[in-house]
Design a protein that fits this description.
With 295 residues, this protein is α+β, with helices and mostly antiparallel strands. The chain is built from eight helices and nine strands. Mean pLDDT is 77; it is low at 291-295.
C-alpha cells in the first residue's frame, strides 16, 4: 500500500507533463481563423479547421488570426469639393483578411490594423471627395458612383501590400456645415437661375429657327401651288378654246342631234299634236332644201 501511494504523485506528474507537452506540440484552427506558424525562422499558414501538431515552443510558434469580416466606422470630416464647397461626410467600411501571412507581417494584430487603416481610409476619402463637384455628389447616381470610386481606390492602395480586401464602403452621412449652408444655398439659387436663363434662351433660339424654317417651307409650297394652278388654268383655257372652236365648226350638226333627242323623248308617249312644222324640234322633219341651196 505504501508503494502504491508513493507512486501516485509520480503518475500525476507524468500525466501533467504529457498534457503540457501535447499542448506545446499542438494547436487548433477554428472556423474563420488562420494560424501563422513560425518554425526556425520560416513562416507558413494553416487554414484548415481542426487539430494540428507542431514542434514545441520555442522551436515553433503558432499565432492565431481572426479572418472574420471587420467593420470600420469613421468620424465626420469636413472636406471641400472640387468647386470649393465644404461638405461634412462620414464613411463606414468592411474588410477581411485575404492573406494572413502578409497581414501578420505588415499590420500585425487587428488592433494595430484598425489604427493603421484609419489614416489610409481617411486619405482615400479626402482624395475622392476633393475630385468631385457638388453637382456630381448630389446627382441621381452621385452617391453610388462615389462609393464605388472609394472602394476601388482603397483596394488599390492596400490589397497588394497588407493582405486584406475591402468589400464595402458606404457614405453614412453627407451634409453641409451650418456655417456655410446659407452661402451654398444662395450660390445654388444663383446657378439654377443662370442655368434656367440659358435653357430658355436656347429654347427661344431653337423655336425661332423652327418658325423661320416653317415659314420658308410654307412660302415655297404656296409658290409651287400657285404656279401649278396657273399652269393648269392655262392648260384648261387652251382646251376650252379648242373645244369651243370645234363646237362652232360643227354647230349645225350638234343642234340637229339635240333636236332628234328631244323629238325621241316626245314621241315615246301616245299623243296626237297639231303643230306648225316650223315649231322647234319638229322643224327637223322638213326637207333640208335650204342646206342644199346654200351649198
Amino acid at each position: 500500500m505504501e508503494n502504491k501511494s508513493s507512486k501516485t504523485p509520480l503518475i500525476l506528474c507524468i500525466i501533467i507533463c504529457l498534457i503540457m507537452l501535447t499542448a506545446m506540440c499542438s494547436y487548433t484552427v477554428g472556423q474563420s481563423q488562420a494560424v501563422v506558424l513560425t518554425s526556425l525562422g520560416k513562416q507558413s499558414v494553416e487554414l484548415r479547421p481542426g487539430l494540428h501538431f507542431k514542434l514545441p515552443w520555442p522551436i515553433s510558434k503558432a499565432e492565431k488570426i481572426n479572418t472574420k469580416r471587420q467593420i470600420f466606422n469613421g468620424s465626420a470630416r469636413d472636406i471641400p469639393t472640387s468647386d470649393n464647397i465644404l461638405l461634412s461626410s462620414q464613411i463606414s467600411a468592411s474588410w477581411r483578411i485575404t492573406d494572413p501571412l502578409k497581414f501578420r507581417n505588415s499590420l500585425g494584430t487587428l488592433t494595430d490594423a484598425q489604427s493603421n487603416l484609419k489614416s489610409i481610409i481617411e486619405t482615400s476619402q479626402e482624395t475622392i471627395l476633393r475630385s468631385k463637384s457638388r453637382d456630381q455628389l448630389f446627382s441621381t447616381e452621385g452617391m453610388t458612383t462615389t462609393e464605388k470610386d472609394l472602394l476601388e481606390d482603397l483596394n488599390d492602395r492596400i490589397q497588394n501590400s497588407y493582405g486584406i480586401s475591402f468589400d464595402f464602403v458606404g457614405i453614412t452621412s453627407f451634409s453641409v456645415p451650418a456655417a456655410n449652408s446659407e452661402t451654398i444655398l444662395s450660390r445654388m439659387k444663383e446657378e439654377r437661375i443662370k442655368e434656367a436663363s440659358i435653357i430658355r434662351s436656347e429654347a427661344e433660339s431653337t423655336a425661332q429657327i423652327m418658325r423661320n424654317e416653317a415659314d420658308s417651307k410654307k412660302a415655297k409650297i404656296l409658290a409651287e401651288a400657285e404656279a401649278e394652278a396657273r399652269r393648269k388654268r392655262g392648260t384648261s383655257l387652251v382646251t376650252i378654246i379648242e373645244q369651243y372652236e370645234n363646237h362652232l365648226e360643227y354647230s349645225d350638226f350638234i343642234l340637229f342631234l339635240k333636236k332628234l333627242d328631244a323629238l325621241g323623248e316626245v314621241s315615246r308617249y301616245d299623243t296626237t299634236l297639231f303643230l306648225d312644222p316650223k315649231t322647234p324640234i319638229y322643224d327637223v322633219l322638213q326637207p333640208q332644201n335650204n342646206t342644199s341651196d346654200k351649198k
